[in-house]
Write a structure and sequence with these properties.
Length: about 150
């Protein structure tokens, strides 16, 4: 199966700018973009919520970029393949954010449902990161948490 935008010529910078324009158009009132190591960050504030996407970027030294079926690639060719993979990921993120916001705007879904995993909790953790271990534990044990907090009957 092919990846969305695998052959895109749209630069990563253009995709980031598109994401910011899209967020502004749908009502976001704060934006942060950043990069550290192999992770890019897009964060925004909308509807009283802080939302953060961490985009894992490909590793420049990955064999998929540095080698072909005929052997090692020239450094500039490896860089071109890596850049293409980065552009693809930024295009995919732009699509995801736009689709979620359009679903909310069209009344198909609500904001919190669309962005739930990426909403930032007061301690800085993402809801998805906080919830995944609890879901896993529940499925492993077969026990569901009580509907209401407090002592069990």
């Amino acid at each position: 199966m092919s990846k969305f935008a695998a052959g895109t010529s749209v630069s990563s910078e253009q995709s980031r700018a598109e994401i910011q324009r899209t967020l502004r158009r749908y009502g976001a009132d704060g934006f942060v973009f950043g990069e550290q190591d192999d992770t890019a960050l897009v964060a925004f504030r909308m509807r009283g919520r802080q939302v953060r996407f961490l985009l894992q970027m490909p590793n420049r030294r990955d064999l998929a970029f540095t080698y072909s079926s005929r052997g090692p690639r020239a450094p500039h060719v490896a860089e071109e393949h890596w850049e293409q993979a980065c552009r693809q990921r930024w295009r995919a993120l732009a699509l995801v954010i736009k689709a979620k916001l359009e679903a909310v705007s069209a009344g198909i879904s609500v904001f919190e449902d669309e962005f739930l995993a990426n909403i930032v909790l007061p301690d800085g953790q993402l809801v998805g990161a906080w919830l995944r271990p609890q879901i896993e534990a529940s499925y492993n044990s077969g026990a569901m948490p009580p509907l209401l907090p407090g002592p069990s009957a």
